[in-house]
Amino acid sequence: MTHDPLRPENRTLAEALNMSFDVMSPAERKVARALIAEYPVAGLEPVAKLAERANVSAPTVLRMLARVGIQSYPHMQELLREEISERTTSPIDQYESHAGARGSADHHLITTANEVFVRGLNSSSASVPASEFDHIIELLADPKRRIWAVGGRYSGLLAEYLTLHLRLLRPDVRFVGRAESDKSLALLDMGGRDVLIAFDYRRYQDTTVEFVERAKQQRVTTVLLTDPWLSPAAKHADYLISSAVEAPSPFDSLVPSLALVETLIAGVVARLGAEPVGRIQAFDAWE
Question: Which UniProt keywords apply (predicted)?
């Protein structure tokens, strides 16, 4: 039976690739990872070039595309060009397109917003590969690993939120501030047993991308949470989770991403079991 994750919910190619890893052959996974590593540029190259990047044959590239519901290479490139246009959309560009989402005679804004958020939550959770998610939870729950979290102007809120919760559950969890000095000092202490959780969304921040790259150079295990079009930091990520950003306003929503952060926290709690109880009790005693 053909696996077709792309069309039903108008997913981006990156989302379709990510959620299909578990059903791909090893050779097909190599193609998918080559695409994601240089997304979307690699997909705009000739098929022979992408095959060379992945060290597979051109027919393998086409089989991988068919796996996600794309029947030709030109069709994939057409989809990618459309994504590039969406990827660079600004709040001003989106304002008019969201005019109808502010409510109407038939639908109050509360109803419209609820529909948008539920759609984003469902789409985001469905596009996360279970195996990828489980690996991330294992990293976050491993007491031998030191955890760092970083984000941008708005996504830094998610990084800080994750940090606040993980610090209650386990030691050695650190939030990296927005200042360049904070990032530089963090890089001085990072090493091969560390894990970096980075957040970067549309209108991507060069400082976040560069920080992930430099952390990867220091053998840090990198996890990226981003939007359906993928931050350039995806090139340096060992693990990748994308989530919808559709909102009832001109601004991208962090609601689906926050839900994924909450789910990661729940996964760490389940993984650690009773271990954090004493830590939380001690914290409450000091409050």
Answer: DNA-binding, Transcription, Transcription regulation
Q: How far apart are CA 34 and CA 55, in angstroms?
A: 9
pLDDT tens across 136-160, in order? 999 999 999 999 999 999 999 999 9
**DSSP 3-state assignment of 151?**
coil
Query: Does residue 81 sit in the same domain as residue 30?
Result: yes
CATH number of the domain encompassing residue 30: 1.10.10.10
The residue segments making up the domain with residue 39 are 13-87
**Chain centroid, CA 155 distance in Å:** 12
- Residue pair 80/230 in contact by the 8 Å Cβ criterion: no
Give a yes or no: residue 26 inside a domain.
yes
Nearest Cα residue to 242 out of 21, 2, 28: 21
Pairwise CA distance, residues 10 & 112, whole Å: 19
Q: Which residue has the tokens 């000092």?
A: 185
Residue 199 lies in a domain: yes
